[in-house]
């Protein structure tokens, strides 16, 4: 039975057995899953290796390499006349790249465009498209030749430095990689979508790449952090601003990273009381025409308000887009909206993917430079071996010529006696120990070589070649000498082609280690009542004797004035609290530095404020300590105390400082030690003083507790920390005010109705603001019609609580006081 089963098993047919057909052909059954898998892998690898990804050594895809090689072969170099682009495309298609002509021409177009490549590899003549997205003219109308910098990509190609492979039909050979003296992968970057993977490498500044490469040659243990001290980050052909180095560092360390790119825009006064945003640089790969069209669409849809006109005044000298701002609109707010809603701010996702020995790998910065150096070491080795071979071949011939010159009469006699060339060749080889190559050189020698002068030239050439051979042998055997050659080549490249960095790199909130590059020094920070801020060195304000005239601290408009001035370290933080209960912060060194006379920069241009959001409090902070508190008060009388350390983790869009009810606003914030008394004052002239200890510490998102019980229609206008050496200044809408000693305010429990701080009669009007002031302070009072008066505190009487005060500002009918600012004397800060 077992034998029968065995026989039956042997006779069963395997469905995948090869079965002969009637014509004798064999059909091989294959599972469709296997066939699809294998065919797709073949296709994917063909796309990855043959089209979409650059080689890590020369930074070129096959089509770009073939274009440059075809132009080099045809002699269309930078010092020769332009040739029709159609001719170049035809050569590339016919010889090396069997794909569509449009693919080749589009590649040529991109290699010409100065807004696509940081260092264009082809010099074009004619219409090759524009940054507005205009397509290039047809290839029959444009002309091209290699650019000067492309010569460095093909230098030494003829010296057997790279491997050649057959072209698609086997009739010609093409290089598998170019010698690439130029570090092209880093300086020009690359983009491409393969199958299941993509590359998006950023361009860089040639001088910085050279410096980083030299650093790695000199110290192979250099880290990415070390390299970033000279290679700051990408340098895009269209300029722009990179926000922060976090994404750059991530890309350099891991091969992937995201960077924020922002347009360069300034605010200019184009006519009296008429401002405009002038855009002079846009992010890389942004279509300018579509950007303008998108801005216009947002204005029509009223998603951006305050733009009255948009004009494109760009010309051959550069980009200039003029965005006119409506009168009464803050241009800085509009600019922030443009950054938020348009491609004036974009994200560039870096993917450093390239082929290493035909394998796609994500590369960090150090590895990219190492691959370039390994390639150059290999090129120099092969080039030197080629030069050594040529020198040895020449010295071999020169040795034969020297033998001939030493035996000149005998050789002449032998040649004259020979009936044929072959007989003369045989005689020379037999009688003088010459080989066939030397014999041929002697027979081809002209009679002029027989002179004494020519004889000396042979001797000199031989000696020179022997020195070169010794040098070539030493280079082949020494990596240090090869590195010396690479150093000199890189320095030469930098001298010939380097230009200034176009893309600025500015700090962002997450770049803490930027402080390592910024000196720690004391600076003066000034803030105006209309929201302009600047910093400048302390020594700008030289110390003066009492009674001095002082110096001009800022050029301001008539209705603008310096509201706050304080000394801070460049490494400290400034916390900005808004009416909507959010907190933003800036490092002091991130505040733009200005001169004494400059106005500074609008705070809203530093922070990404929302619509209707404005700053209500600013606090300088050295450290986020656990024993310090932020005390807050809102319009509805809510108060809240939080640990300062709770606010130590920033976000670009700000963080919640206090959760507000829908109709509430944050009025003021004070930095305290947790043991002070605070005073809240309401619009109807009520004030309550209570201890901070009545309010327990709460988290950031908490709403707080009641600080004062308000009457119908009343709201809080002020929060101040009690300082017994100060007095409480109260100002009303109709320009009346007074100072009151803090001892007049009894300490109560929080949540009460408070006591009268000033009588808010029909004469006085409601309370506008309250400030704790010292004798040496001034106060600046502003009316709704822009009238400003500066009054010394000593000129305002100290009175009891239950009084109406005195007239401080003569307010005209229909006008009212809207703002009060305490101005600290600068000499006290200097002390």
Structure notes:
This protein has 831 residues and is α+β, with helices and mostly antiparallel strands. Helix content is 30%, strand content 25%. Strands 31, 32, 34, 37 and 38 form a five-stranded mixed sheet that branches. Strands 16-11-10-19 form a four-stranded mixed sheet. A four-stranded antiparallel sheet has the order 12-13-15-14, covered by helices on one side. α8 crosses α13 and α8 runs antiparallel to α18. The longest helix is centred in the middle third of the chain and has 42 residues.
Termini Cα gap: 114 Å
Which regions contain 5 or more consecutive residues with pLDDT less than 50? 1-13, 509-514, 541-559, 827-831
What's the gyration radius in Å? 40 Å
Number of strands: 43
Backbone shape: elongated
Q: State the helicity in percent bands.
A: 25-40%
| Name of the CATH architecture of one domain | 6 Propeller
Reported by name, the CATH topology of one domain is: Neuraminidase
Structural class: alpha+beta
Report the major sheet: 5 strands, mixed
Question: Beta-sheet strand percentage?
Answer: 25-35%
Provide the residue-averaged pLDDT: 85
- Number of contiguous helices: 20
Q: CATH-wise, what's the superfamily of one domain? A: DNA gyrase/topoisomerase IV, subunit A, C-terminal
Reading off the top of the CATH hierarchy, the class of one domain is best stated as Mainly Beta
